User: What shape does this take?
Amino acid sequence: MSRRVDSEILQRTYEDNEDKFNSAAFSDVLVRFNSLRAKLQSAADTKLTYLEALPDDAPEDRRREFVEWQTILEPFVIKGDTWLSAPWLVTEFYLYRLLMEALGYWDPSSAGFKYDPFAKQKMAGLLSSPGSAEPMLSKLKTLPKTKEGIELACAFALWGNKMDLSLWPADTANTDVDVFSDILSTAGENLLHDDSSILGDLCEKLRDSGGGNVDIIVDNAGFELVTDLSLAQYLVETGIAKVVTFQLKSHPTFVSDAMEKDLLDTVEHYAHLDSSQYPNASACAKIWQSFLRNGSWKCHEDDFWVQPFPMWEMTEPLRTDMKERCDLAFVKGDANYRRLLGDRMWEFTDAFTDVVGAYFPCPVCALRTLKAELGCGMNAEQVEKAKALDDNWLVNGRFGVVQYGDGAPKH
Assistant: This one.
């Protein structure tokens, strides 16, 4: 962990921000940044410590976040854990929180106030995304207003540019639904569990009731975020959702993770694409802008999304809000999935409905490509097939799951 974080992530962060970090204004930031790197370079001997004390005039939201981190760190500080002996997920999130501390991210007097050290890398991902997004977005407007359409929209959000669009019919208005079934069959070949049909039933109920409140717990910026936007567009345009709320990170973390500004930057960038080169991406962006203006889309940043709490320890007021307001939540990304499972090793065949669906505050659908050596709710035969096909089946993103759970009872 220490080698990868220091020599790869933090070194790249320094290189991307070298001019800024070496400026007079950032001199204090650079000292704190180098101190953090030194801790990582002696990770085996460096014990975890609490965050620096807040100033007396810190606002309430910062005080709450500080107390939450004290709660997270307490068992490991008491035990005397080092960066290498504490759980990986804890130290990963802790690292990015300490980086914010080094920047003075919440200190208006610091040169690092609200400064995103990963902006350059995220912008590179955004600039490279339209080429992959254009063919996908060209199909978005042709998705049928059916269960198959819902499943295809989710397949886009899951697989992105791995979807085989060569099967797509030229004349969708006069196409038999079996053609879309063939596309779904191809998209589902590497699914180790697929609850798309159950998800489709819920979405049709939401549409029949006039539309619900749907959340998308976002993972990465760049092309992956565009796939989330495409799913959100489909949900609103087909009446499944009255409002889609994007749950986003409250500060820069994991390099590519998306904040509200990244979503807004994506919409703005796509709205200014050359419409002759990217006609569908440009047209979709105009729709996205209108959704943000009229309230069909909302953005919500929360500190919980940048903390290693298992999701069954979701903090307030987020948990109560999702329990009372949200009719369905899509969970994207591997770090979010690890937190759904409490970063624990479940049997691969343990039912998702028992592990996650029993506690989550609302109905939940995980859209996950496998990139970590843990999981649940997978079909035994499919797992054996994946093992036979690929020794790295758990970590290389070749296989995925669409998993649904009803969530905890409302009352």
Summary: The first strand starts at residue 191 and ends at 194. The radius of gyration is 22 Å.
